[in-house]
Amino acid sequence: MKVLQFREALREAMNEEMRRDESVYLMGEEVAEYNGAYKVSQGMLDEFGPKRVIDTPIAELGFAGVGVGSAMNGLRPIIEFMTFNFSLVAIDQVINGAAKIMSMSGGQFTAPIVFRGPTGNAGQLSSQHSQNFENWYANCPGLKVVVPSNPADAKGLLKASIRDNDPTIFMESELMYGDKGEVPEGEYIIPIGVADVVKKGTDVTIVSFGKFMKVANASAEELAKEGINAEVIDLRSVRPIDYATVIESVKKTNRLVIVEEAWPLASISSEISHYVQRKAFDYLDAPIHRITNKDVPLPYAPTLIQEILPNVERTVKAVKEIMYVQK
């Protein structure tokens, strides 16, 4: 094992896949000459040249469309959005283009393309730069949506996404690019759609994904101090969702709390809650609880940001409520 930053793990994945397959290329704003807005693509221009590491104008609709067209014609583009908030400018190309082309062409065309970049809040960036669209994209048939939580998963899942023949939304976090973690040496790939049971437990299941796995893990540590043994599951991807792993855990613990950085209406946690009560209702000893953002645009003030986002205090409180622990 070696220790890499999250950004370095992503870079290794792209470098390895571009060396392996000449049809893979990277395109986006500042990815080449500036080495990437978050230095994810540092040094890639020097190795692969300007035909495979391509700077674009500030025109997401345009370069996303170029990517979709090139994917339909045999290439495997990686399209970097400086933030997924800006992907809204290109969402027609993603939803009406990449996601639907295989179905609409009767299988004559595929779009093996990866759209990647940061999602969610990154501090005091206010409402238009702090949104989560994982559930939006996961709602669209034809797309896969991957949200890694650590460097090892980031590398293995990005390599899987680049090789996949379906268009994949690969969502990262500005707040995680500097995070360090152990990454396996050599070639490895993590299959899309397989959740990770990060911690085994017996009393309650806590499910999350992306950077809010930190809240899930920290909550489990706090609960352990009070004798509550939580099982923690990292979904890794939200389309497809590994329902089976969640169901098996709930059958064992009989309780479920879902932590998600998203608005509550039609969230991933809403979908999981529905599925679990549908498939494992008789195993539940308490209502499912979910911890999401408050139902407002994210403000600028740091005190309000902390009030709105999921946190350890809210998660621990939810667990105690469904365990009927009055403290």
Indicate the low-confidence ranges by residue numbers.
none
Helix content: 25-40%
Number of strands: 14
Q: Indicate the structural class.
A: alpha/beta
What is the residue-averaged pLDDT?
A: 96
N-to-C SSE string, H for helix and E for strand: EHEHEHEHHEHEHEEEEHEEHEHEHH
Rounded to the nearest angstrom, the distance between the terminal CA atoms is: 42 Å
Strand line-up across the major sheet? 3-2-4-5-7-6-12
Q: Over the alpha carbons, how many angstroms does the gyration radius reach? A: 20 Å
The dominant shape is globular
Total helical elements: 12
Report the β-strand fraction as a percent range. 15-25%
Characterize the main sheet.
Answer: 7 strands, mixed
Lay out the secondary structure.
Blueprint: E1 2-5, H1 6-20, E2 24-28, H2 44-48, E3 53-55, H3 60-72, E4 76-80, H4 91-98, H5 101-104, E5 114-118, H6 134-138, E6 144-146, H7 151-163, E7 168-172, E8 180-183, E9 196-199, E10 204-208, H8 213-224, E11 230-234, E12 237-239, H9 243-253, E13 256-259, H10 268-279, E14 289-291, H11 302-308, H12 312-322
Parallel strand pairs: 2-3, 2-4, 4-5, 5-7, 6-7, 10-11, 10-13, 13-14
Antiparallel strand pairs: 1-8, 6-12, 9-11
